[in-house]
């Protein structure tokens, strides 16, 4: 019975909803320190998998490539991933085109600028069409 009340006190310590994984990790450490409970018990109380608690993300191996592509994309904003790959190849940096595509895939400024639609400059075009039809 004493163990149940201890678990109840531990839960009251961290009664928060919608906490991200980083916050849950801090909560596990807090409850472990305050209530002298094992990692397994605290993770079970907080409904957190122990694997998620111990998980350490891998370092981003594309960080250097991403920064280099960002510089190139700012210099040449209309270039897509294929032309950026060609620029990298000319500079001697051997990178697979699929990796460039993956890095450019929405997280970089590799998206092309909106090209003006054909009807956008219609005043000059209309004048040319009118003279051609006469």
Explain what the structure shows:
The chain is mainly alpha-helical and 134 residues long. It has 2 domains: 53 residues, no CATH class; 42 residues. The chain is 61% helix and 0% strand. It contains 8 helices and no strands.
Give unreliable regions as ranges.
none
Distance from first to last alpha carbon: 99 Å
Average pLDDT metric: 76
What is the ordering of alpha helices and beta strands? Answer: HHHHHHHH
Total DSSP helices = 8
Helix content: 55-70%
- Provide the number of structural domains: 2
Based on DSSP secondary structure assignment, what is the total number of beta strands? 0
Largest sheet composition: none
Secondary structure category: mainly alpha
The shape is elongated
What's the multimeric state? Answer: single chain
* Residue share in β-strands: under 5%
Gyration radius (Cα, Å) is 28 Å
List the helices and strands and how they pair.
Elements lengths: L1 H12 L7 H15 L3 H7 L4 H5 L8 H13 L5 H10 L6 H8 L17 H12 L1
Helix pairs in contact: 6-7
Gist?
With 134 residues, this protein is mainly α. Helix content is 61%, strand content 0%.
What characteristics describe this protein?
single chain; 134 residues; mainly alpha; 2 domains; 8 helices; 61% helix; 0% strand
């Amino acid at each position: 019975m004493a163990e149940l009340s201890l678990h109840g006190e531990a839960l009251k310590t961290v009664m928060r909803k919608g906490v991200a994984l980083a916050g849950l990790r801090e909560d596990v450490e807090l409850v472990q320190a305050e209530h002298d409970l094992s990692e397994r018990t605290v993770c079970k109380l907080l409904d957190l998998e122990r694997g998620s608690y111990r998980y350490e993300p891998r370092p981003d191996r594309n960080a250097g490539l991403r920064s280099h592509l960002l510089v190139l994309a700012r210099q040449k904003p209309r270039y897509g991933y294929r032309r950026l790959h060609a620029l990298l190849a000319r500079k001697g940096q051997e990178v697979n085109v699929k990796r460039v595509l993956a890095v450019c895939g929405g997280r970089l400024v590799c998206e092309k600028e909106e090209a003006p639609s054909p009807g956008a400059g219609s005043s000059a075009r209309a004048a040319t069409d009118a003279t051609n039809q006469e």
